[in-house]
Amino acid sequence: xxxxxxxxxxxxxxxxxxxxxxxxxxxxxxxxxxxxxxxxxxxxxxxxxxxxxxxxxxxxxxxxxxxxxxxxxxxxxxxxxxxxxxxxxxxxxxxxxxxxxxxxxxxxxxxxxxxxxxxxxxxxxxxxxxxxxxxxxxxxxxxxxxxxxxxxxxxx
Length: 156
Fold this sequence. Notes:
Blueprint (H helix, E strand, L loop, with lengths): L1 H17 L3 E5 L19 E6 L6 E8 L2 E2 L1 E6 L5 E8 L2 E9 L5 E8 L2 E9 L5 E8 L2 E8 L9
Parallel strand pairs: 1-2
Antiparallel strand pairs: 2-3, 3-4, 3-5, 5-6, 6-7, 7-8, 8-9, 9-10, 10-11
């Protein structure tokens, strides 16, 4: 009887710790600070799907670790096309982030380090033609930057 009670207790704890690893919210329920689930005292760790207000259209997929954004983040247009993609580490932008037009053409590609722009930067017009490229250091543009017109010709 004692072993059965211990096994049931362990199974219950395991079930509770694995429950709610993916949650679904509408965009008006998006947490502003550390994310907790209702009726829980520990911060949320897992995946969160955000939907456009009063719809079943996926807007964002975010990952949390101990209530803080951590991991891949994806945003979508209402037509389902990928809008933005990147990673967040401990609540801060990290690594390469890419953005796309509603038709799927590249819009930008930037790099972050600890929430600051760092490294190569590339932006495009909505037709996919390169608009500007250069380098950021410590969140500031540095060095030579190239700017182009909408036809792809280098501007002065």
